[in-house]
C-alpha cells in the first residue's frame, strides 16, 4: 500500500494546463524527489495534495483514503504537513513559540491561530499540558539543531535556520508525510550538507516519509531514493537517481548536457 497516491491528476487554470495526467505513488518511509524546470507544475502538485487547489481531474489518496480537495486543515489532521518555497514563519514570535503554535493548531497559518494560542496561554497559565507541549517543542528544536535559538525572534534567524524552523513546525503538527518545497533554497554549502543529514535522520528516527521539491541536484541525487521528473506539467521520467540522471529526456529538458560531464 502506498502512503500517498495521485491518480491521473490534472490541474487547469483557465486555458493553462499546469499539471497533466500525473500518477505518483510515494511509499511509506521513502524520501522522494519531485524535480523539473521552473513552471513544470511541482508546487501545483503540492498545492493539490494539501487541499489548496482542487484538481480539475483525478484522485488523491492518503493511506488509501481519498483526500481530493478536502479543506487544508482536514488534510493536515490526516498527517500531511508542508513547508513553503517562500518562508512563512510568524516573524514576531520566538522560535519556540512558532513551533508551539503549530502544535496547538494544526493549520497555524493565520493570525487566528496565534491569537487562539496566546489567549489559551494567558487564560490557563502554563498548565501541565502546556509544559508538556513546550518540552516536545524544545525536543523538536534540538532535533533540528535550533534549541540554542529557542528564545530568539524567528526573524533574527539566518535564512538556513528559518528553513529548518519551518521543518520543525511541519513536524510539530504530528505529520507522518512531510512535503518540503525547496528546503535548501538560500542555504550555503555547509548548511545544505547539514540539511541532507537532518532529513535522513528525521526520516529514520521519526518514521516519516518525505516528498521534496528541490533545484539543488546534488542534494536531490544524494538524498532521494526515487525521483519523478516533470516538464510542462507532464511526467517525463521516474526512477532512482542513477536512472533519472542518465535519462536523455531529463538531460534535454532539465539537467542540461553539462550535468553529464561536470554535474556529478
Ligand atoms: N493559482 C494559479 N493561477 C494561475 N496559474 C498558476 C497558478 N499556480 C500556478 N500556476 C501556473 O502553473 C504553472 C506551474 O507552476 P508551478 O508553480 O507549479 O511550477 P513549479 O514547477 O513549482 O515551478 P518553480 O520551480 O519555478 O517553483 C506555471 O505556469 C504557473 O504560472
Automatic annotation (TrEMBL):
It comes from the Bacteria. One of its GO terms (biological process) is L-alanine transport. Coiled coil: none annotated. PROSITE patterns: ABC_TRANSPORTER_2 (PS50893). Residues 4-257 form the ABC transporter domain. InterPro entries: AAA+_ATPase, ABC_AA/LPS_Transport, ABC_transporter-like_ATP-bd, BCA_ABC_TP_C, P-loop_NTPase. One of its GO terms (cellular component) is plasma membrane. GO terms for molecular function: ATP binding; ATP hydrolysis activity; L-isoleucine transmembrane transporter activity; L-phenylalanine transmembrane transporter activity; L-valine transmembrane transporter activity. Keywords: ATP-binding, Nucleotide-binding, Transport. PANTHER family: AMINO ACID ABC TRANSPORTER ATP-BINDING PROTEIN, CONSERVED COMPONENT OF ABC TRANSPORTER FOR NATURAL AMINO ACIDS-RELATED. This is ABC-type branched-chain amino acid transport systems, ATPase component. The lineage of its organism: Bacteria, Thermotogati, Thermotogota, Thermotogae, Kosmotogales.
